[in-house]
Amino acid sequence: MNTRAIVDTYYELANAGDWDAWCDLFAPNQIMDEQLAGHIEGRDALRNIMKSFPDMYARFANVPRFIVVDGEQAAVVSHISAATHAGATIEADVSNYFRIVGDQITYLANFHDTVPFAPALAR
Question: Cβ distance 34 to 103 under 8 Å?
Answer without folding.
Answer: no
